[in-house]
């Protein structure tokens, strides 16, 4: 168990011991793990980007990534630490994209929208309480979020959207399974 999960478990146990009306320890641990994971990932990315003079870009990457991920779903890592590290890598990478928006960025945005048209929402069935009858609406919103960048023309958004679109693909799941040893060779 990594430090994120240990911290979440200790806090959840403390909450349950001191507040009998609190939710189950398992539910508290899950929620706290998500909160701690997000806090560490975004704080680390922001601090790094402040040091490299990319603070605004980091905020843009975080908002873009979170907004699209909410509607599109996507890959979940098996540990909160690996999720945290992947998130840090995506945010820092997207924030440091430094070239002018061009025809090629438009192509990447359209490609990302096409990926989401095929795959979104993905991986939310057992996590979200959203009724599956609304999944087509989630797909539409995800695609429209990406296509809005054809108007905004932000390379940071292009990078964040492309990374998130890839996280909804079967390729990303197979890659995760390979690196985490879930696939027998």
From TrEMBL:
Lineage: Bacteria, Bacillati, Bacillota, Bacilli, Bacillales
Listed Pfam families: AgrB
Residue spans crossing the bilayer: 26-48, 78-95, 101-120, 140-167
Keywords: Cell membrane, Hydrolase, Membrane, Protease, Quorum sensing, Transmembrane, Transmembrane helix
Family matches, as InterPro entries: AgrB
Protein name, per record: Accessory gene regulator protein
SMART domains reported for this sequence: AgrB
